[in-house]
């Protein structure tokens, strides 16, 4: 019999992207991995797709994702597993010159 446990996580939305989430600073989704969380977020808020994914449907190079304080680039990337209650932060890189 399949389990009914769900993994609800909170995605923290940076200020520049909140217009695509109706001003929400956080969005809760059910997901087992970072990739699934981001895909669910984009399904709910399609205007985020171009900000997060490139033309090859890969996470943009300058979008940093953290689970808690851990940058997923130094672990399993978007395949990073999530636990109930995890906070996933989307942090766009800021370039200056």
From TrEMBL:
SUPFAM superfamilies: MoaD/ThiS
Signal peptide: none
Region (Disordered): 77-97
InterPro entries: Beta-grasp_dom_sf (IPR012675), Mopterin_synth/thiamin_S_b (IPR016155), SAMP1_3 (IPR054834), Sulfur_Carrier/Prot_Modifier (IPR052045), ThiS/MoaD-like (IPR003749)
NCBIfam families found in the cross-reference section: SAMP1
Protein name, UniProt field: Molybdopterin converting factor small subunit
Species name: Salinibacter ruber
Lineage: Bacteria, Pseudomonadati, Rhodothermota, Rhodothermia, Rhodothermales
């Amino acid at each position: 019999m399949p389990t009914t446990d769900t993994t609800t996580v909170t995605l923290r939305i940076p200020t520049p992207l909140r217009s695509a989430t109706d001003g929400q600073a956080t969005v809760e989704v059910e997901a087992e991995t970072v990739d699934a969380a981001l895909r669910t977020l984009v399904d709910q808020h399609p205007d985020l797709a171009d900000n997060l994914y490139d033309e090859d449907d890969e996470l943009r190079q300058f979008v940093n994702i953290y689970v808690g304080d851990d940058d997923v680039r130094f672990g399993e990337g978007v395949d990073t597993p999530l636990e109930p209650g995890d906070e996933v932060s989307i942090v766009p890189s800021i370039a200056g010159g």
